[in-house]
Each structure stands twice: as C-alpha cells, then as structure tokens.
Amino acid sequence: MATSIFKIALKSKVKDTLTPFKGTVVGRTQFLFGCVRYAVQSDKLEEGKRGTPQWFDESQLKVSTAAEEKAGVFKFSLGDDVKDTITPFAGVVTARTEMINSTPRYGVQSRVLQKGAPANAEWMDEEQIVLVKKSTVEKAAPAGSPRQGPRPDAQRRADYSR
Predict the structure, then answer these.
(1) 61 domain residue, yes or no
(2) 3-state SS of the chain: helix, strand, coil percent to 5?
(3) What are the backbone dihedrals phi and psi of residue 146, each rounded to the nearest 5 degrees, phi first?
(4) CA spacing 20 to 30 A to 97: which of 3, 7, 34, 114?
C-alpha cells in the first residue's frame, strides 16, 4: 500500500486553531515548494445552504476525529513536465489536488512567459494530461518541515492571543 504525502486524511473532522471554524476535510492540495493546504467544509448550514469550503494551511488545523486514510496515489509528480492531450498547452506540475468526490487535478504552469511575466497555472484533470519528462525541478523541504512559507526563516508563533 502506498503512503500518503498528506498528514490529514480526507473526511477527517478538523478545527482551525486560530478561529472557532470546524468541519470536514473535503479536499487537499500539495504545492511544488512545500505548502500543503486543506479544503474544509463546515458542518453547519448558512441560511439553509451549505457554505463554501474554506482553505487552511496544514499546520493551522487540529484533527479532532481522524478518518481512515486511503492510499492517494498521484499519477504525476510535482515538477514533472506534462502536456494537455486536447490542446498544445504544456508546462510543469506545480500543484496537485484531490477532492473526496472527483479525479485528481493538477496545476500546470507554462514555461513560456506571457507579456514578459509568468502565466497563471492551468488546472487540469489527471486523465487530460500526459507525461513529457520526469521532474528535474529542485524541490524545497518536504511538506510538514518546521519552516514553511515565502521566507526561509519564517516560523510560527506559539500564541496569537495577545
């Protein structure tokens, strides 16, 4: 059985450590340079409707009831060069997401600049892309390492309630 790259299983009950928000993990995304985020669906209705899932960093969530982990295996690795099977679009996998009720999706960043700047990543279903070349991108520290964020010296403070 494959091991998961995520610390929190889909369908786990979690609580935000900074606010009273709590709910169920319905999706999760891993980014190329170490960030892992989770989509959490509130267990409460807002004016009789389901609310929009909210996204949180992995280190911001506390698991209250863990769900059994399924072996989530992605077909493509972060940093792989892939291409769309329908259009000429090609690029590098910079993120990958799995949701509880859909196929894995990949954020694919074009290596071509648009008007002198990097273009936004395009999100594609796993079945719509093919491998061009295995990863040659040097990745940052693995997800869950003590330091995450845009600054290499960023560290989380122990208490925000001052």
Answers:
(1) yes
(2) 5, 40, 55
(3) -60, -30
(4) 114
Residue 99 maps to a domain: yes
- Report the pLDDT value the prediction gives residue 152, as an integer from 0 to 100: 54
**CB-neighbour burial class of residue 104 (10 A; exposed 0-12, middle 13-18, buried 19+):** middle
Q: pLDDT tens digit string along 65-114?
A: 877 776 567 899 999 999 999 999 999 999 999 998 888 999 999 999 88
Specify whether 48 is located in the same domain as 85. Answer: no
Which domain range does residue 38 map to?
Answer: 13-65
Q: Using an 8 Å Cβ cutoff, are 143 and 34 in contact?
A: yes
Tens digits of residue pLDDT in 109-142: 999 988 999 989 999 999 999 999 998 766 555 5
> How many separate domains does the chain show?
2
Tell me which residue of 53, 48, 47 sits closest to 29, measured CA to CA. Answer: 53
d(CA 119, CA 97): 19
Q: Which residues contact 149 (CB under 8 A, 6 or more apart)?
A: 35
| 150 found inside a domain | no
Residues 53, 22 share a domain: yes
